[in-house]
Every structure is written in C-alpha cells, then in structure tokens.
Write the structure tokens for this entry.
Amino acid sequence: MSAPLTTPIDAPMATRRLPARTFWARALRHRSFVLGGSLSLLVLASALLSLVWTPWSPYEIDIASKLRPPSAAHWLGTDSFGRDIVSLLLAGARSTILVGVIAVGIGLSFGVTLGLLASARRGWTEEIIMRFSDFTFAFPAVLSAIMLAAVFGPGMVTSIVAIGIFQIPTLTRLTRGSANAIWAREFVLAARAAGKGAFRITIEHVLPNILSILIVQVTIQFALAILAEAALSYLGLGTQPPQPSWGRMLNDAQTLLFQSPMLAVYPGAAIAIAVLGLNLLGDGLRDLLDPRLARER
C-alpha cells in the first residue's frame, strides 16, 4: 500500500506558517525607497544642521572675499557678496523645507476636508466643491503670488499662501475620487445598514482606507512645492533677502554665468536632489503601500 499523501493540515506548523515580511524589511530592499529616503534625509539633515551650525554666517557680507574659488576656508567658494556658498545652501534648505511643509499642510488640510465632504454629502455639496476646485485650478502658484504680492508685498508668507492655494484642488480631487471608490465597497454599505452616520463612516472607514494614497501624493506635492518656492524666489516674489533661498541664489548667479558658472550649479543641484529624492520616495511608498504591488515583489 502506498504511503498516504501529506495534506496541508497534516504538515508541521513551521512549514505552513510562512514568516511575515514587515514593512521596513521590504522597504530596505526597495532601491527606489532607499535612494529617495536617503536623499530626502540628506536635505532634511542639512536644514536641521543649519539651525545650530554653518561654516560661516549666511547673512554676513564680505565684499573683499567675493567670488573666491573653493578652499579650506570656503569649501565651495563665495558668491558675489562674499558669502560662503555652503552656509547659503544649508540655510536655503531650511527655508525651502519650511515653505514646503506649511504649504503642503495647508493644501492637505483643506483639500482632504473638502474631498471627504464632497464624497460623503454628494449632490449640490459635491458639485459646489468640485466647481470651486476647477476655479482654483485657474490660479497657478506664480499667478497667485503675483496677486498676493501686489496687495501684501512679496515674501515667504506670500509664497506659502500661493503654493498652499495651488495644492488644494489637486488634493481635493484625489481625495474625492479615492473616497468615492471606498463608499461603494460592501463594508461601507454594511456600516450604513448598521445605522452609522456619514461622518462616522468617513472617519472610521473611508479615511483609513485612502490614507496610503494620500501619503504617496503628499511626497509628490512636496516636490512640486520645492520647485514652486524656488521659482517664486527666483522671480523675487518669494523668500526675500537677507534670508537665503535656493531660488534667490539662482537669481543672483544669473549675471555671473560666464564668470562663475558654479554659482548656479550648486543651488540647481540642491533643488534637483531634493525633488529627485521626494519623487523616488513617492514611487517607493506607492509600491510598498499598494497591496497588489507588494504581493508581486
């Protein structure tokens, strides 16, 4: 008589229970996430370091030391005002992150709230909110900053408000579309049948299920906010002197491109590293937080 076949139930517990791969275990093997996270942490560490230390004061002007090449005293040289380039880059990272965090926070707070409200209420409420989003799309960050600067003057607050307003419609549309898909799911219908109200369902069921989508989108919006802040500072509508800014550094370097081209390369590289890091981080989070993609890896 042949030996009986071993069924999954007859198999030892150790062979039937596969070790679970935690999020961080998978994340550390994801090249896009690791590279993007490393670049983003580098920018964040630079900003935090500038709070307590810079090689030289980023506000101190020394005309006698202007346009000096890299040396032991000034690692990347000095600009046309004699300021240390490394110190300006470190302090500029602080300004960029501050503007990005507050602007994205404004867009996230209003965008997610309006998107969830539109999805939960439907009808005229949804129509009004979506038409408001369409109207806001007609005012990009630069145009909003020009209008705000005409009334309140240019500055960091102007760029924060302008970029924050531009973030709202994107996050509103994303939240509303993602929430609508959750409202059609069976567990939400069961919650409604159990007598739960729209607000409770939104907080307990809808928002937790779209949180991963919002986290990924926030990294993308943060990268766009960094680009917008640099553009506004370059145009003179954002961060004002003497506060260092990568966009302001590009503006100061444009008249010296043939005499000292590296003055434009350094802040441009800093912007590129920050944006690339956030985009790679967003791609990695998308792969890690999407259950379908996670099973394929």
